[in-house]
Design a protein that fits this description.
alpha+beta, four-stranded mixed beta sheet, about 375 residues, about 50% helix
């Protein structure tokens, strides 16, 4: 009987979990749109604990607001969700930010932030907290910061001819951006703003003998090439399923933000096509080998780092989740008083409606247990 209860309770928990996940992905109702906010602290040291986004439609007749708190909105794995009126295009301003910091659109690094909300729709919004001191210090690259990698077109790489062909096509397409003011504003400035807080650390972690100072001494173009041909893919191994779990995940979480920046540049189609061709090659390489390839020096992630982070397949993840749910169900049932269960079912088994009484008793127990389970899970995630 107890094993049966554990099995049924597990099914109930799985259903409850599935419904919870599905609810967060549902489209908004008529006249509304469900918005998911992805906020990152690109400054690496934002001291504030909260701020408020003021969302106003283009006509100024609709105003809404949402307060974001550290931990629940950034600085953790949480992605707050909010329902807004739609169809509306919102312009966003912010209140409560600490002095010396601002928020920009992660996809194009513009401080003019807006988003479109479609009726019965779903939209993702990507914002970054940055230091205004860093932002104001940006300047057009000078002759003293010329690219070294843009001049690699004549080299011969014998380790992987296919990879070399992809890389050379990429370099030929993007090298005009090395000393171009429009490309600086559209793309390269990103690697100035976030070079120290993000990419330099990745360079030290994922390149054999690499240091943060080495990365920061590069031209912005070379930082871009290192970041978007190798470093970003290497960092993706730290959360394999998020980036490489499916092609949809890969396109959404790995390449979409870079494509967004490239599309702000002049005559971007050639650059975009070359980047996506390299990204697709890298995706297939990771799926086949379990780690990315370093186009710049012809080494693999394994050569650079020495070992690959442990990853599990989707099937293994599902099996692990199933096991955890079964264990949770067993623990919840152990906490129930067996005498209470017996009182609920005793006598009903001998009555004409005995089987119905048992089912009702089981359902009552299951709903109580599921309720306790959900409460415990919520407390643990806060």
């Amino acid at each position: 009987m107890k094993k049966y209860l554990i099995f049924v309770l597990t099914v109930f928990i799985l259903i409850a979990t599935t419904l919870t996940v599905s609810a967060t992905a549902e489209k908004g109702a008529e006249g509304t749109c469900n918005v998911t906010f992805f906020i990152t602290d690109e400054s690496g040291s934002y001291p504030g604990s909260s701020f408020t986004a003021i969302m106003t439609d283009e006509t100024g007749t609709i105003t809404d607001s949402y307060k974001f708190a550290k931990g629940g909105s950034w600085g953790g794995n949480n992605t707050p969700k909010y329902t807004v009126a739609a169809p509306v295009t919102y312009t966003v301003t912010f209140e409560g930010l600490e002095n010396g910091y601002t928020i920009v659109n992660t996809l194009n690094y513009s401080s003019d932030i807006s988003f479109a909300a479609a009726s019965r729709g779903v939209t993702d919004v990507y914002w970054s907290i940055i230091s205004t001191d860093t932002q104001s210090s940006t300047s057009i690259p000078t002759e003293g910061s010329r690219s070294i990698l843009a001049e690699q077109s004549d080299r011969t790489n014998t380790t992987d001819s296919e990879a070399e062909e992809i890389y050379q096509s990429f370099l030929r397409a993007v090298s005009p951006a090395a000393d171009n003011e429009e490309w600086y504003s559209a793309l390269l400035i990103h690697y100035e703003w976030f070079g120290e807080s993000t990419y330099a650390k990745w360079y030290a972690d994922y390149v054999d003998g690499g240091t943060e100072d080495d990365f920061l001494s590069m031209s912005l173009f070379d930082r871009f090439v290192w970041s978007e041909t190798y470093l970003s893919y290497a960092n993706g191994l730290e959360n394999y399923s998020w980036y490489y779990g499916s092609k949809e995940n890969y396109d959404s979480h790995m390449t979409s933000s870079v494509v967004g920046m490239i599309e702000n540049g002049p005559d971007y189609e050639t650059v975009k096509d070359a980047y996506l061709a390299l990204a697709e090659w890298q995706y297939n390489y990771v799926l086949a080998n379990g780690y990315p390839y370093n186009f710049i020096n012809g080494q693999t992630y394994l050569d650079e780092v020495g070992e690959v982070p442990e990853t599990i397949s989707t099937e293994e993840a599902e099996e692990q989740e199933q096991k955890e749910l079964e264990e949770a169900a067993a623990e919840l049932l152990e906490e129930l008083d067996e005498e209470d269960i017996q009182e609920l079912t005793e006598g009903s088994e001998n009555s004409s409606s005995g089987s119905s009484g048992i089912i009702i008793a089981i359902v009552l127990i299951l709903f109580a247990a599921v309720g306790a389970f959900v409460i415990l899970r919520r407390r643990k995630t806060k």
